[in-house]
Amino acid sequence: MTGSNTPRANSMTGKRGKRWPLRPLSAVILLVLAAGAVASSLITQKVVEDQERLILREQTAEVAAVVGSAFAGAQSSLQLLGEIARSDQGHPQLFTNAARAVTTTSTQAWLVTTQSGTSLKVTAATGDGPAVGQAVSGDQGTLARRALSAKGLVSGLVRDGGTLRLAFALGGAAGPGTVVWQESAISPTTPTPTGPTSPFHSLNVAIYLSNHPDPSALVVTTTKGLPLAGVQYPFRVGADTWLIVASSSQSLVGSLGQDMPWLVLGFGALTAVLMTAVIETLGRRRDYASALVEERTASLRSAIAEREAAQADLNRQENMAAIGQLAATVGHELRNPLAVVTNVLYLMKVGSKADANDPIRRHIATAEREISAATRIVSDLLDYAAGRGPILAPVEVCDLVAEALSVVPPPDGVQVVQRGEPQVVDVDRDQIRQALLNLITNAYDAMPDGGVLTVSTISEPGSAQITVTDTGMGMDEETRDGIFTPFFTKKARGIGLGLAVTKRVVEAHGGTIAVRSMPAAGSSFTLTLPVVAAMVSASQ
Question: What is the reported pLDDT for 181?
Answer without folding.
Answer: 84
